[in-house]
Structures are given as structure tokens and as C-alpha cells.
Design brief:
With about 80 residues, this protein is mainly alpha-helical. It has one domain. About 75% of the residues lie in helices and about 0% in strands. The chain has five helices and no strands. Helix 2 packs across helix 3 and helix 4 packs antiparallel against helix 5. The longest helix is centred in the C-terminal third of the chain and has 15 residues. This is DUF2624 domain-containing protein.
Length: about 80
């Protein structure tokens, strides 16, 4: 795993609600404050490798379960921006 991937994964695994909302706005992804709270709470402390397709798919399924399919799709777009 490259240093870039490690940094991005670390950011994902420690993201706050405010940071998630900031990134969503920056990349034009619409999520509510409540959804950002749920997502950041779920992510915090997990060791998810968003560069691994199966882990990313599992993560997005869990976000879909916590929020909605539309939110999971929006988060998928945001994650895609991080992994480019």
C-alpha cells in the first residue's frame, strides 16, 4: 500500500461529521447533517481500506443500511473522488 493510500484510509477511518460535510460540499455531493453523523460515527475507528473493492462494497452496503440507497450512492461518488 502506498503512502497516499495509507493517508486516505487514515482520513476515512477518523473522519468527523464536519469534515465529511466539508468534503461532500467540495465535491458536490449532497448529504444531510444527520446522514453525515451516522456515516462518520460508523467509520470512526474502523480499519477500512477503501482501495480494496470488496471492502469498499461492504462499506457502502452498510452505509446504505444506515441511511438510504441515495445516500450510499452519494458517498460512493465521494469515495471515488478520494481514490482517483
Amino acid at each position: 500500500m502506498s503512502i497516499f493510500q495509507s493517508i486516505v484510509n487514515q482520513k476515512i477511518n477518523t473522519i468527523t461529521t464536519e469534515e465529511l460535510l466539508k468534503y461532500a460540499k467540495q465535491f458536490g455531493v449532497a448529504i444531510s447533517v444527520n446522514e453525515a453523523k451516522q456515516i462518520s460515527s460508523y467509520l470512526r475507528g474502523r480499519q477500512v481500506d477503501i482501495f480494496n473493492k470488496s471492502e469498499r462494497a461492504k462499506l457502502l452496503k452498510e452505509i446504505e443500511r444506515l441511511t438510504s440507497p441515495a445516500t450510499a450512492k452519494a458517498v460512493s461518488q465521494l469515495v471515488t473522488q478520494f481514490t482517483k
